[in-house]
UniProtKB/TrEMBL annotation:
SUPFAM superfamilies reported in the protein's UniProt record: RmlC-like cupins
Cupin type-2 domain ranges (all copies): 54-121
Position of the signal peptide: 1-28
Annotated organism of origin: Kribbella jiaozuonensis
Keywords for the protein's UniProt record, in alphabetical order: Signal
Protein name: Cupin domain-containing protein
Pfam families linked: Cupin_2
Keyword Ribonucleoprotein annotated: no
Keyword Cell membrane: no
Length: 145
């Protein structure tokens, strides 16, 4: 699975409109310790494809959020702890793992770095044209951010 996802990420990166390395803060609150760099971006029809490298520092969190389109991720380094709106850990992804996040406000989630080393993710966002990379969401009542 991770070869397929990594292949898709690479294909979009090499075939998309390269816009350089653009550092930015993560797009969810109350996230902390997260930075992202857009590696490639292109629009085909009414769909935006954005390839981004995200780094989450030890103790960092993406903050609660959801996406308006599907997200495909590959863990390059570290271990990501992923939790859903029921406060359950729905995935622990180590280096070499790939995962997807479905779209919509019914799929609120948070990613956290509970380890001692930075997490590095390669993420492909497949979004309706003009939509943000993520939409902020309130903590659904979990004892963690």
């Amino acid at each position: 699975m991770h070869r397929f996802t990594r292949g898709v990420l690479t294909a979009v990166a090499s075939g998309g409109l390269a816009i350089g390395l653009l550092p930015s803060a993560a797009d969810a609150t109350p996230g902390s310790g997260v930075t992202g760099t857009i590696l490639s971006q292109s629009t085909i029809g009414r769909t935006d494809y954005v390839l981004r490298e995200i780094t989450i520092q030890p103790g960092g969190t993406t903050g609660w959020h959801f996406h308006d389109g599907t997200l495909y991720a590959f863990v390059k380094a570290g271990t990501l702890t992923h939790s859903d709106h029921d406060c359950r850990t729905d995935g622990v992804y180590r280096a070499g793992a790939a995962f997807t996040e479905p779209s919509g406000p019914g799929h609120v989630h948070v990613g956290r770095n509970l380890g001692s080393k930075p997490i590095v993710l390669e993420v492909l966002y497949v979004l309706p044209h003009g939509k943000p990379l993520s939409e902020d969401a309130p903590n659904p009542g979990c004892p963690f951010q």
